[in-house]
Structures are given as C-alpha cells and as structure tokens.
Amino acid sequence: MNYQAASSAASAALGPDERFLAGGQSLLGAIKLGLAAPAGLVDVRRLPELQGIAVGGGAVRIGAATTHAAVAASADVARAIPALADLAGRIGDRQVRNVGTLGGSLANNDPAACYPAATLGLGATVHTQRRAIAADDFFQGLFTTALEDGELITAVSFPVPRAAGWQKFKQPASRFSLVGVFVARFDAGVRVAVTGAGPGVFRCTPLEEALSRDWSPAAARAVRVGPEGLNHDLHGTPEYRAALIPELAARAVAGAQG
After folding, report:
1. Mapping DSSP to helix (H, G, I), strand (E, B) and coil, where does residue 240 land?
2. pTM assigned to the model
3. Which of these, 36, 69, 91, 135, is most buried using a 10 Å CB contact count?
C-alpha cells in the first residue's frame, strides 16, 4: 500500500483506488478487518488549513482535521453552541476523541455516528476544496455522501442557534448511538436530526413541527414517530427505536442551552 502526506488541501489528490486519511478511526479498522483495501493513503491530518476553530458572523467554523477532543475542549464552541461541545465530548472513548476528526466522521457517514446529527440538526455547511454543500444535501444514505471522487472536506460551518441540545441512547459495547437526537431552535423554526435509528441520519418533521409550535419536552413526548424504515437488529426493534426518538428529543429540549 502506498502512503504519502499531502502538502496542501488545494493540491491533495487521489490516485486510482486511493483514500484520504485523517484520524483513521474507521478506515484503519476497516482495512484491518479486510473490509477495505485501498491502493494507497493520502494523509491530510496535519494540513494547517484543515485545523482550527473560529467563531464569527453567527457561525462556528471548524477545520475538518480538528479532533473531537479539541472541539469538546474549546471555550469558543462551548460559548457559542454548548450542545456541539457536549456532543464532541461524548463521542466514543478518550482514544477516539483524541484521534478522530470532524471531517473523517462526516465523510464516513456511519449511520450511528454523532457528528452527522449535529451537522444536519444545525443546518451546517460542509466546505470542500471545490465547493460548499448544505447539510440537507450532503447525507445521502448508508455510508454515502454527496462527496465526489477526490473531494476533500476542509471545514464545516455551524450556524449558532438560539438553543440546542443533544441526547443519545448508547449501545453499551460499541458506545455508538442506538438512537441519538439533536435539536436546534432558530428564529425560523426548529430542526431535529436523528442518528442510529435508520440507515442514515435524517430529519424528523413531526418533531420539528411540534417543537416549532411549542418548545417544550411535553410537546416532544406527545409526538408519535412511526417505525417504518427504521433499523431492526439484536439491539432493538423498529418500534423500540421509534419510541426512543421523541423521548430523547424531549430530554434534549429539557437540557438545551443557548
């Protein structure tokens, strides 16, 4: 397998069947298990233009190679979007948080990952070396995104909401979200993103409509979410996951900060 370190985001390019490498928390595990066999890796984790956190213009912009631990520890993120810092601080374990990156998580788009819920729930913009992609257009299904061949995430801009909250019900062994719900309240209304429950992260319209009318835990708990299209595995039935969604949304609203 070939390995090279990219010199800049603008010049980073992939050869045939090569992959970008950031934290490697998903990719390296897949390689070890024989689930992925790229011809080469292009390391982008040390590129300065993919690092850092900046707050301004009503948004928090985070470089794609910024680790979960750095986001969790950022006083700027904690002041602007406390729920985002809280989410980052509860991803995986300490090793994952110190090595895993924002951009890597979004590019992988694991159906139970936490960051996709924050990105979709906040209506963020995913920036690449080629374009800007709205969160509503970025996530396209199981491990699938709008990224084209050779396209590299460079940063993500998260709009600052009036209030936001995050709750997840963890699978005890993997620590991934059996169901996770991110709620965000804006002047224009409420966005609710759900992870873990289906084949990919998705917005929950019934909860958005109910919470836009009444931003309260009671309003969230009164919503019935149907089981259609939700995951069914040894950890829970679609009906179980459906029941968790409004309850976790209610807890997220109860703990929301802004």
Report:
1. helix
2. 0.94
3. 135
